[in-house]
Amino acid sequence: MGLLDGKRIVVTGVLTDDSLAFGVARIALAEGAEIVLTGAGRGLKLTRRTARKLAHPAGDEIEVLELDVTEPEHGVAVREALLERWGRVDGVLHAIGFAPESCLGDDFMAAEWDDVATAMHISAYSLKALADAFVPLMTAPHGSGGSIVGLDFDNRQAWPAYNWMGVAKSALQSVSRYLAKELGPQGIRCNLVAAGPIKTMAAKSIPGFARFEDVWDERAPLGWDVTDSEPVARTVVAMLSDWFPATTGEIVHVDGGYHAVGA
Description:
- The chain has one domain (8-255): NAD(P)-binding Rossmann-like Domain (Rossmann fold).
- The protein is globular and about 50 Å long.
- The chain is built from eight helices and seven strands; from the N terminus they run βαβαβαβαβαβαααβ.
- It has a seven-stranded parallel β-sheet, sandwiched between helices.
- The N and C termini lie far apart (43 Å).
- By secondary structure, the chain is an alpha/beta fold.
């Protein structure tokens, strides 16, 4: 039996096969889940292309639905499509983040509010947007609860170059806690997985990302491989399963222990 046997899971954020979300999708399928992917804008074509690299146990193609989290009508359309296809949703992966170029780099003061607002909308408020879209399919009369898991980067301290994306991650953490409070009575858990740095397309867009690579492996008690997303993906799949029935509002670190060690 797989951890996700019989579960129906929505996976956002798959662009290429080095995406953290791709690793989650691959392991979720291996653990028995049915999945759909979502994509948006210019990335939708990439998501559809990458979906072909995922092997469905029944040989079916993995469906990709359009979902731009800044467009509420997209959430309604996806919910209606999944109500017809599945009747319910058991879990959702939030792997969505974006910040305009001015929000990253060496000058924290350079970003104007319009750019910061974009980063906050797509990277933090989007968690609530996913809840709007899928909670109705997790609750009666369709479902009996579920799990929302978001990918995070621990932002208890300031990082070089991360700037306003770091602020957005702090907001994401707060949104997750408030959703945990709001949705818990309906049997829905909301947690984040704080990953160490992984070489993904998103990471390549962060100036100075290379500064993290060597120091992370040196300081993490368990070591850290920036090319291996599987530890993160396994943890997400576990959080989507029924094995954490009383855990919500939590941030689970999958970073080799880096967060626990001082200089």
